[in-house]
């Protein structure tokens, strides 16, 4: 009989803990969760995130900037038509800037195809373009005669090298981590919404209450005492 009050206390404690847990879950608002899910799904429907779009714009800027510098170089060194014939038709690896322009076109095509069209979430494409750009420019600077042709012999290789590594840094430290973080947030919100659906709406604290302590234990103890006293009286 001594175990019965302890069982009652355990039952009351369990009801109070379940009451507290339900109150903790209750503040989840399904409407707010659905609104957040729709906002995340709206971003997915765009097809490309804002940070990835910024990266693609920077890749386009890379191509246009190198093209502009090359056109200026063509115009400075004797006119565009004559310099085009010398650098394109009569291409010479040691003195032409045409290959640096083609290198920018190569970066543009690979990165736009990989991260805008195919929407890759891996760094292998940017690693390929940066490695090719770095190796080619280092070899050209060492073997060619660009430094003897004026300021553009320094500007074009250095600008191409810097832009390629800025693209690598931006993708690896901004685009991919931010997109992964947004995807994790979407999964957490969806998981919370699924758990919120299992909870009935409109629950209030009044619907959960702890029953008053029963006096059944004390009544049973009194009856046992009376039963134990009867044999003594008969004696």
Describe what is shown at a glance.
It is found in: Late endosome membrane. The protein is mainly α and 235 residues long.
Blueprint of the fold:
Layout: H1 3-25, H2 30-45, H3 50-76, H4 80-89, H5 98-117, H6 124-143, H7 152-197, H8 216-234
Helix pairs in contact: 2-7, 3-4, 3-5, 3-7, 5-6, 5-7, 6-7
Explain the overall architecture.
There is one protein chain. This protein has helices spanning 3-25, 30-45, 50-76, 80-89, 98-117, 124-143, 152-197, 216-234. With 235 residues, the chain is an all-alpha fold. α2 packs antiparallel against α7, α3 (50-76) runs antiparallel to α7 and α6 runs antiparallel to α7 (152-197). The longest helix has 46 residues, at 152-197. The relative contact order is 0.14. The model is unreliable at 1-8 and 15-26 (pLDDT under 50).
Oligomer: single chain
Percent strand? under 5%
**Strands, total number:** 0
Mean model confidence by pLDDT: 77
Q: Treating each run of at least 4 consecutive H or I residues as one helix, how many helices?
A: 8
Helix share, percent: over 70%
Low-confidence stretches: 1-8, 15-26
H and E string: HHHHHHHH
Main sheet makeup: none
Q: What would you call the structural class?
A: mainly alpha
How far do the termini sit from each other?
27 Å
| Backbone CA Rg | 38 Å
GO cellular component, one term: lysosomal membrane
Transmembrane segments: 55-76, 96-116, 123-143, 149-166
Membrane topology: Multi-pass membrane protein
Main location: membrane
């Amino acid at each position: 009989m001594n175990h019965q009050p302890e069982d009652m206390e355990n039952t009351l404690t369990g009801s109070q803990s379940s009451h507290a847990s339900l109150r903790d879950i209750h503040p989840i608002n399904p409407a707010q969760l659905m609104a957040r899910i729709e906002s995340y799904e709206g971003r997915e429907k765009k097809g490309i995130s804002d940070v990835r779009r910024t990266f693609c714009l920077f890749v386009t800027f890379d191509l246009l900037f190198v093209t502009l510098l090359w056109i200026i170089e063509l115009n400075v060194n004797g006119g565009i038509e004559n310099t085009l014939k010398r650098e394109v038709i009569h291409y010479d690896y040691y003195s032409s800037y045409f290959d640096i322009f083609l290198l920018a076109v190569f970066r543009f095509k690979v990165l736009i195809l990989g991260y805008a069209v195919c929407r890759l979430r891996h760094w292998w494409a940017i690693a390929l373009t940066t490695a090719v750009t770095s190796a080619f420019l280092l070899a050209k600077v060492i073997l060619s005669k660009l430094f003897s042709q004026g300021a553009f012999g320094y500007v074009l290789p250095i600008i191409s090298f810097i832009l390629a590594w800025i693209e690598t840094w931006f993708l690896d430290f901004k685009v991919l981590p931010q997109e992964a973080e947004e995807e994790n947030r979407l999964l957490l919100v969806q998981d919370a919404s699924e758990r919120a659906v299992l909870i009935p709406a409109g629950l209030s604290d009044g619907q959960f209450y702890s029953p008053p302590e029963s006096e059944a234990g004390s009544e049973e103890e009194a009856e046992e005492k009376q039963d134990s006293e009867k044999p003594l009286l008969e004696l």
